[in-house]
Specification:
single chain, 239 residues, 5-stranded antiparallel beta sheet
Length: 239
């Protein structure tokens, strides 16, 4: 088993330390029935009654890797944008404040003005206290925690954490640039997924590959329930 090493650079409180994503499953998913109306039986039209909770690709996405959390409350309010004479206008921009050491810094919007997620007047950036080290040949995909409701979304990135072991910070955008309210300490901030660096070359499948795919599809469709899980899925372990 490979080791991933998290080194705390600011003495973060225990409750805000990283966890395997499997220990931080969102409530909507935990509370969802596994089968429509709680009944494990076909729908009457030859279809499964399973909900998304039985979908292993979604489960693997939610539980893949580790979750980093915010470690301080942040309150977002809206401040009026002044006109050229310094008078307030009807336009506003998000204003961030927090009670502890600096948890947010800012990048000017001009650094990525045409990014599809750009909004507001800047890119706020979560200051991550964790240095992360992976084994040789492994990088980390930093992405927004998957299948979660959140008021913000970090900008995804891949870092070669076998070579670079300083803390990686996370520029983000508000999903609603007019949001006002509290982002509490302990909010999932980023999902980190170790990935092995390998060289790849794209090719296109042959008739033989198509025949094999058709056999896979027929095998998948030979069961009403948990067919992918029981016949194809491979376990993923993060501790």
């Amino acid at each position: 088993m490979n080791n991933i090493i998290f080194t705390d650079t600011i003495n973060t409180p225990e409750k805000y330390k990283p966890k395997p994503a499997s220990e931080s499953v969102p409530e909507w998913y935990k509370n969802l029935e596994s089968y429509i109306s709680g009944q494990k039986k076909p729908t009457g039209q030859g279809q499964t009654s399973a909900t998304i909770k039985r979908c292993m690709p979604v489960f693997d996405a939610i539980t893949n890797g580790y979750i980093l959390y915010t470690y301080s409350d942040v309150y977002v309010s809206q401040q009026a944008i002044p006109d050229e004479n310094g008078k307030p206008t009807d336009q506003t921009y998000p204003w961030y404040e927090w009670p502890s050491s600096e948890i947010i810094q800012f990048h000017p919007i001009e650094q990525a003005p045409s990014h599809p997620q750009a909004n507001g007047m800047s890119y706020p950036k979560w200051i991550n206290p964790w240095s992360i080290k992976t084994p040789k040949g492994y990088s980390i995909l930093f992405t927004a925690p998957m299948h979660r409701d959140s008021v913000f979304t970090i900008l995804d990135g891949v870092v070669d954490t076998d070579q670079y072991d300083a803390p990686v910070n996370f520029p983000f955008v508000l999903n609603d640039v007019k949001f006002e309210g509290l982002i509490p300490a302990g909010t999932p901030m980023a999902q980190i997924i170790p990935i092995k660096r390998e060289d790849w070359e794209m090719k296109f499948g042959t008739e033989k590959d198509l025949d094999k795919q058709n056999l896979t599809t027929r095998l998948l469709r030979s069961s009403f329930f948990d067919s992918y899980k029981n016949k194809f899925r491979q376990p993923k372990v993060y501790k």
